[in-house]
Amino acid sequence: MITLAVSAYLVAVALMMGSFVNLAADRLPRRESLVRPRSHCRSCGRVLDVIDLIPVAGYLVRRGRCATCGASIGAGSPTVEALCGASMLIALAMLGLARGALLGAAAVAVVGLAAVSLSLARARR
Ligand SMILES: [Zn+2]
Asked: How many folded domains does the chain comprise?
C-alpha cells in the first residue's frame, strides 16, 4: 500500500518534471527566464490557472486550447508530459521502487534533455 502511494507520488513528480521541461523548451530558445513571469498564454497573456497546469489532464480538459482566446496549445506539451510520466511508471513497474525510481528519474532527465535540445536546435535554424 505504501509502495503504491510512493509510486503514484513519483509518477506525479515525473509528470510535473515534464511540465517544467515544456516551460524550459519554450523559454530557453527565446532567452527568457525560467522563473518569471508565471506561465501564461503566448497569445493573449492570460496567466495559467490550476487546471491549465495539471499535466496531460489540463490539456485534455481545455481540449488543447487556451480557455480565454482559444489559441492552440500544441500537442507537444502533453506528449512530453506523458512520456515523462510513462517513463517513471514503466521503470517502477519493471524494477520496483528503489531501482525503478532511479531509472525512472534518469529516463525523465533524458526526455527532458532531448526535448530542450530539439527546441533549441529548431530555434537556431
Ligand atoms: Zn490565450
From this structure: 1
